[in-house]
# Entry
Amino acid sequence: MEPCKPLAPWNRAKLVGMKVPLKPNETWAMHIQLQGAEYVMDLAMFNPSIDSIPQG
# Structure
């Protein structure tokens, strides 16, 4: 019976941890794309999540 090869971690050489927050123009770009593609349900979930972010 042969020993198993150790598997490489799935997140090797990937950035882990907190990500940089989205800029306002990036959020509006996503908003416009959802509106233009008529993804009504996705837009309905996206709007409250953006409204709940503290503006500063």
Summary: The mean pLDDT is 81. Residues 24-36 form the longest helix (13 residues). The CA atoms of residues 45 and 51 lie 11 Å apart. Helices lie at 24-36, 40-51.
